[in-house]
Amino acid sequence: MPTLKIFVGTVYGGALDVAEQVKPLFEEAGYEVDILEQPTLEDLVDPLPDLALFCTSTTGSGDVPGNLTPFVRALKERPPTLTALRYGLIALGDSSYVDSFCGGGRSLDALLEDLGAQRLGERLEIDAMETFMADDEAVPWAERWIAEQQLRQA
Length: 154
Ligand SMILES: Cc1cc2nc3c(=O)[nH]c(=O)nc-3n(C[C@H](O)[C@H](O)[C@H](O)COP(=O)(O)O)c2cc1C
What we know:
This protein is of the alpha/beta class and about 150 residues long. It contains five helices and six strands, in the order βαβαβαβαββα.
């Protein structure tokens, strides 16, 4: 069975909630799904999953949450080649932080791209100013993502 790893970056649990809500959609599409709340670089590369989904909020002024900091630091200090990685990215943020809106997700996305990884489709950005429950946007997005990127297993 193909594997999907969901890498979560969260302070207050919203991004984890999103990961837990989309997990059954991927299971139903034929994946073995793992949610990682304290991910390490090894979780990503050893072995590389068939698909990865990064689901992270933003804290500070445009930073990834603390639980994702060691992972991001390792990506920068021991940069792996990620050309075989296909991924999606859900960023949670708040547009009242005008200059750093979704900065954590955006910077992680740029880093993954620099390392050669291939993002499938567009990044989803969920604005807490507009959406009270992030799942309300994330679940339909994940359904569309699976369909449009033809991720369902035969
Ligand atoms: C101290 C603090 C700093 C934040 N900084 C930013 C920011 O720079 N950019 C942004 O888009 N959102 C920022 N946010 C908003 C959160 O990213 C947003 O509320 C998100 O939904 C929280 O998700 P979580 O529950 O997974 O941590 C900040 C929130 C707090 C409490």
